[in-house]
Amino acid sequence: MIRDEETLNQLLDTLRRFVRERLVPSEQHVAEEDRIPDDILQEMKAMGLFGLSIPEAYGGLGLTMEEEALVAMEIGRTSPAFRSIFGTNNGIGSQGILIDGTEAQKQKYIPRLATGELISSFCLTEPDVGSDAGSLRTTAIRDGDHYVLNGTKRYITNGPEAGLFTVMARTDPDNKGAGGISAFIVEGDTPGLIRGKPDHKMGQKGAHTCDIIFDNCRVPAENIIGGREGVGFKTAMKVLDRGRLHISAVCVGVAERLLADALHFAMERVQFGKPVAEHQLIQALLADSKAESYAGRCMVLDAARQKDEGVNVSTLASCTKLFCSEMVGRVADRAVQIHGGAGYMAEYAVERFYRDVRLFRIYEGTSQIQQLVIARNMIREAQ
Amino acid sequence: MKVLVAVKRVIDYNVKVRVKPDNTGVDLANVKMAMNPFCEIAVEEAVRLKEKGVATEIVVVSIGPKAAQEQIRTALALGADRGIHIETDEEVQSLQAAKLLKAVVDKEEPKLVILGKQSIDTDNNQTGQMLAALAGMPQGTFASEVVVDGDKVNVTREVDGGLVTVQLNLPAVVTTDLRLNEPRYASLPNIMKAKKKPLDTQSPADLGVDLTPRLTTLKVEAPQTRKAGIKVGSVEELVDKLKNEAKVI
Q1: Eight-state DSSP code of residue B200
Q2: What is the pLDDT of residue A80?
Q3: B60 vs B85: CA distance, rounded Å
Q4: Tell me, what DSSP letter sits at residue A188?
Q5: Rounded to two decimals, what is the model's pTM?
Q6: B166 DSSP β-pair partners
Q7: Which among A47, A61, A64, A71 is the top mutation candidate for probing chain B, defined by the most B β-carbons within 10 Å of its own β-carbon?
Q8: Same domain membership, residue A264 and residue A364
Q9: pLDDT band for position A1 (50/70/90)?
Q10: How many domains does chain A have?
Q11: pLDDT tens digits, residue range B141-200?
Q12: Contact call for A2 and B34, based on CB within 8 A
C-alpha cells in the first residue's frame, strides 16, 4: 500500500516509461509470434508486476484498489496480452487463497506468485457452465486424505503457462447449488491434470487460454482452500468486484492509447489540403472518444476509492465494467474509422486493438450479466 | 569504496520544450520533470560497481528545489544507499554546482565521483570538469567504460575519431557518455523501499557556497522551424540546383 503521492507518481512514471520503451515496441512481434519474449517476461517479473495486489508481507506491493487501477490504466496503453500474463496472479489466481486460504497455504504459494515464479490460473468456466457457476459439473470426491477431481474446464486463461490452478469443483453431489462447490489449489504438475491445445482466439495474441482436463486427478485434502468444503463459490464471488474494476481500468488505458494513436494519425494525414483532424466530422469522432474515455476514468477511480473505503461496490463495479468495456469498443471502432483504409491494415496498431478489445465485453462477466447484476441490485435495494 | 553520484532534475526528455513568450527562458509550468538521462547512466554505473563488489556505498546528491527529492528517490530505488539534497529555488549555474559538490566531496570523501557529462536542459558540459579542478582530482570525461583497478580507475573516453583510455589515481571524477551502459528500470518493490532510505537535506548556506550567478541569460529562442522542401522534376534539375543554388556539389 502506498498512500503517498510522491511514491505513487514515481511508480506510475516508471511503469509508463517501461510500457513506452519496452512493451509498445514489441507489441507487433508478440502478436505475430503469439508469444511474449522471455527477456520481456523476466523484466516484467523483476519490475514486480506479478505482485501488485499481493500484500507486502507476502512479497507483493499491496496496492489499494485505486492504486491498482492507476497501474492497470498505464498497462492498458499497450497490448492486453502483456497484462494477461500477470493478471491472474493479481486477481482470481491469488485472491481466493489470500481471502479464504489457511496461513500455511498462503506461505507456501503467495510469495512465489508475487515474484512471478509461479503463474496462476483460475478454473471456473466449463463447456456448459459460464456465469451460471451454480450448475458446475466438475467433481471432487474425497478418498482418504485426497480428493479425486474429474471434469473439464474451458477457456482457462494462462492455462498453458500456469504452475498453479485454483479449481472450482463440486464436493457435495447432493447439493446442486453454490454451497456444494469447493475451491482447490492444484499444482501444475499433478498427475491427472491435462492441458488442452491453446485456443485459437480472435485477438489478444500472446495471451493464451486452453482446456484443463481433470482425469482422476488426486489432490491432497490439505489443498482445499480454507481447509473446509463449501466455501469455494463464495470465494469466487468475493474477488469479482476487484477483477471487474481492474478490467475496467485496462479498458480506460486502451481507450486512451487508441485515442492517442488516432489523434496522431489525424494530425499527420492530409486530405482536401489539410490534416483530417481539422475536418469537423473527424473532430466529432475524436471528441466523443475523449469524453467517453474520461467518463470511464472517473467511474473507475470513484468506484475504486469507494471500495478502498470499505463500501460494497458490487453495483458500481458492474456499472463500471459495463460502461468501460462497451466504451472501449466504441473508441476502437472510431479509431479505425479515423485511420480510414489504414485502420483496416495490420501495420497500424488500431487494427489489432480493434480485435483485442472485443474480449472486454465478454470476460469477467458479459455486458448482459453486468446489466442483470445492476438491475437486480437496484431492485433488491428498493424492496 | 564509497561512490558519490550527482543527479539533476531536468525537463523529461519526452516533453516538447516551449520557450516563454517573453524569451526569458523555457516554460516550466506544469511540465513533467525527470532525472537527466546522463545522470541515470551515472547511477547505473555506480549500482553495477556495487553489484561487482567494487563499491560498498553509493551516496546520491542533487541540487535543486524540494521536488528534486523525487530524482534522489529514483536513484535510491535504483540501488543508491542514501541521499543528500541541497535545497535551493535559485538558479544554479555550473560553477556554483561544482562548488556545492566540492563541499559534499570534502565531507563525504568518496573514492569515485560519477556525474553525467552534461544535463539536457542547458547542455553546458562543465560541472564535472569544474568539480575535478576545485577538488584537485583527476578527471575522466565522456566515459564509455569504467574499470576500477585497485587504487586506480581506467576510463575509456569517447573522443572524435575513436577511443582514448586514461588511467586515473583514485579519488577521481568520471563523467558518463551515452554508451557507458543501459540504465535499468527501478522495480516497483524497490521504489516503495526507497521511501525508507535516509535522505539528508542541506542548504547552500550550510555548505558555505554563494549562489550569485556569474552569467546572465540575455535571450532564449526556439530553434527556427524547418522550411518546407520543394519537389524537382528531374535528376538534371536536382543536380543543377545542388550545384548552382545550394552550391554543395
Answers
A1: E
A2: 96
A3: 8
A4: T
A5: 0.89
A6: B155
A7: A47
A8: yes
A9: low
A10: 3
A11: 999 999 999 999 999 998 888 899 999 999 999 999 999 999 999 999 999 999 999 999
A12: no
